[in-house]
Amino acid sequence: MAVTAFHWSNFLIRLVVAFVLVFATYNPSGNSWIHWFIQSENKLDPMIILSAVVLIIGWAIYLRATARSLGFGGSVLVIALFGSLIWAMIFYGWLSLDNKSMLGYVALSLLSLLLAVGISWSHIRRRITGQIDVDDVETDV
């Protein structure tokens, strides 16, 4: 029998994993897989390939779960919400377009949040509405 309880700590774990996945792939500081690959003389270094495969597996899990739970329309709505949030931050002077690094960190953080919400959406919706997904129903057959 699967555990169906979902707590905020479960969401935070998924959020931390999403942050690690996104920021390990790319970040403005220059310490990321993309920078490592570009600066490497040996593009076929086994550690570069191994880490690429691990990142691809992580991205596949998160993107597939987000696509299945939020769908295309839901993902577009979340992106529109986050885009509006960034626009408001720029409009009210909390974020400057001149500071590309900070803009990158905000965008990558919001992408991590999108992935964490996407992978957790079925649980979040069940807690909000009381509805369950067909995949969650267990039978005694």
TrEMBL record:
Transmembrane stretches in the record are: 7-26, 46-63, 70-90, 102-121
Against InterPro entries, the record matches this protein to: DUF6524
Q: Which UniProt keywords apply?
A: Membrane, Transmembrane, Transmembrane helix
Q: Which Pfam families match?
A: DUF6524
Name of the protein this chain belongs to: Uncharacterized protein
